[in-house]
């Protein structure tokens, strides 16, 4: 492979130009470049390590991009109007109408089966909530899929239906994934941690063996797949053959509680409507799973949104010595903030969720929002923080995550609990998987038309990515 020399580049926050030499997929000393190296001038653009999204459901994101968008609905009635308009515009076909993105925590009316039945009496309608922890279905969908009831399905029932939809998704799934991968590369993504509920390792292996090289993938899995991975002789971090070294075995994902919007996040204090939320795994069950992960060489990714779920997850890390992340950590008790750093547990957070959940948090967790999305407190207590999107819950767009981590307001209001913000530099670093531009590092590099360290929030959100390289190969080019 011919060496590649990138010239006339600038580092974020600097006016001085520099050069990057790429040799055999790694960054090399630019002073060793010879006359045979291919030279590409970046014409003063800024370079930095490529971005990682540390929490993605990639297949769902690829498919959801083609589904009916309900994120703008402010009531059940409005959501039904959106559904009715789509049905009026489409052919009357047997395939179910699938929508995505409704959030009912602030609605004054309820998402009932009757509301959907009025606009869709015969065609199955399945609407996924924005946080994916609930699915709203009409009576026709109940009958088509043999569901326990119409209306809103939550947690396990919702997840099972979503997996069926993914398996039965209309259209070519590979085409959808290919299109989504190209879009991710155009946003500067060089790696993802894929936590898809469906068995994703085989799919990624096949696609990469057929030429998909958009980014690196760590393929996570769930407890029901544990035996299968062990029977394959795999352990955490193993590189999968025939994937160009881009696919590795990722963490064991454990969902220990629900979500804010569905009022199922497991909390120390009760909800106004009663109850503390839903604990999907008991603390004892979580500990047993972490013990097994430690014994077989796997990291873990433990979903915990409510503060009590976070407490139980940290207890399990402490009892087992497991390595890995707590995913989301949207509400954390003051007593638990310091335990992340003490135990070496990484806080894998999705900052754009705070834009979406700001008002719902104030209604559902009143008096506790000073410790909601506590990025600043975690940072100050020495915790490692990594950023992600939880796509399709939020768009797979790392620039939005970086902006939300720094500027805790998604509208014209003042930032929400600004003391919990990260600095721009910290948010950028939390999005690069610990990578730098040092010699010997993988040549996963992006070139930008705007300085990401000093630009405005608006410019950050619209960040123009001029080029993305993974292992020294261009996966996006707009120079």
Q: What labels would you give this structure?
A:
479 residues, alpha/beta, Urease, subunit C, domain 1, TIM Barrel, Diaminopimelate Epimerase, Chain A, domain 1, 3 domains, eight-stranded parallel β-sheet, five-stranded mixed β-sheet, 21 strands, 22% strand, globular
What does this structure look like?
By secondary structure, the protein is an alpha/beta fold. 32% of the residues lie in helices and 22% in strands. It has three domains: 1-49 and 442-479, Urease, subunit C, domain 1 (Roll), CATH 2.30.40; 51-59 and 173-441, TIM Barrel, CATH 3.20.20; 66-167, Diaminopimelate Epimerase, Chain A, domain 1 (Roll), CATH 3.10.310.70. It has helices spanning 58-64, 76-89, 113-119, 139-145, 156-167, 173-186, 201-209, 226-231, 283-296, 307-320, 334-343, 352-364, 375-380, 398-406, 424-429, 457-461, and strands at residues 4-10, 17-23, 26-28, 38-41, 46-49, 51-56, 68-69, 97-102, 125-129, 134-137, 151-154, 189-194, 216-221, 247-255, 300-304, 324-328, 346-349, 385-387, 445-448, 465-470, 473-477. An eight-stranded parallel sheet has the order 6-12-13-14-15-16-17-18. Strands 7-8-9-10-11 form a five-stranded mixed sheet, with helices on both faces. Helix 1 packs across helix 6 and helix 2 (76-89) packs parallel to helix 3 (113-119).
């Amino acid at each position: 492979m011919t060496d590649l020399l990138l010239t006339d580049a600038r580092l974020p926050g600097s006016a001085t130009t520099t050069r990057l030499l790429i040799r055999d997929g790694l960054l090399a000393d630019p002073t060793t470049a010879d006359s045979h190296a291919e030279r590409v001038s970046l014409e003063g653009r800024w370079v930095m390590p490529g971005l990682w999204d540390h929490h993605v459901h990639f297949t769902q994101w690829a498919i959801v991009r083609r589904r009916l968008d309900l994120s703008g609905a402010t009531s059940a009635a409005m959501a039904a109007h959106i559904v009715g308009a789509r049905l009026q515009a489409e052919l009357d076909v047997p395939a179910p109408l699938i929508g995505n993105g409704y959030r009912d925590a602030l609605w004054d009316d309820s998402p009932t089966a009757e509301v959907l039945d009025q606009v869709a009496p015969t065609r199955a309608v399945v609407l996924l909530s924005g946080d994916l922890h609930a699915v709203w279905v009409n009576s026709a969908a109940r009958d088509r899929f043999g569901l326990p009831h119409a209306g809103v399905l939550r947690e396990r029932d919702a997840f099972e239906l979503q997996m069926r939809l993914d398996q039965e998704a209309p259209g070519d799934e590979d085409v959808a994934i290919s299109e989504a991968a190209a879009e991710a590369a155009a946003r500067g993504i060089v790696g993802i941690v894929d936590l898809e509920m469906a068995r994703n390792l085989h799919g990624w292996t096949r696609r990469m063996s057929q030429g998909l090289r958009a980014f690196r993938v760590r393929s996570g899995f769930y407890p029901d797949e544990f035996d299968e991975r062990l029977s394959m002789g795999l352990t955490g971090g193993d590189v999968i053959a025939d994937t160009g070294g881009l696919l590795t075995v990722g963490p064991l994902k454990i969902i220990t509680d629900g979500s804010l919007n569905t009022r199922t996040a497991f909390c120390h204090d009760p909800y106004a409507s009663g109850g503390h939320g839903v604990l999907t795994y008991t603390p004892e069950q979580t500990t047993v799973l972490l013990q097994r992960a430690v014994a077989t060489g796997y990291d873990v990714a433990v979903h915990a949104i409510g503060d009590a779920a976070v407490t139980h997850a940290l207890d399990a890390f402490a009892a087992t010595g497991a390595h890995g992340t707590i995913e989301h950590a949207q509400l954390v008790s003051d007593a638990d903030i310091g335990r992340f750093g003490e135990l070496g547990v990484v806080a894998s957070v999705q900052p754009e969720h705070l834009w979406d959940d700001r008002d719902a948090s104030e209604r559902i967790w009143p008096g506790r929002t000073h410790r909601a999305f506590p990025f600043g407190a975690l940072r100050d207590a020495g915790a490692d923080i990594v950023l992600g999107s939880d796509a399709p819950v939020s768009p797979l767009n790392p620039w939005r995550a970086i902006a939300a981590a720094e500027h805790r307001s998604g509208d014209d209001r003042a930032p929400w609990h600004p003391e919990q913000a990260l600095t721009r530099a910290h948010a950028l670093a939390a999005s690069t998987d610990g990578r730098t531009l040092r010699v010997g590092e993988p040549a996963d590099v992006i070139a930008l038309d705007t300085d990401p360290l000093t630009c405005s929030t608006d410019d950050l959100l619209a960040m123009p990515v001029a080029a993305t390289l993974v292992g020294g190969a261009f996966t996006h080019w707009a120079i």
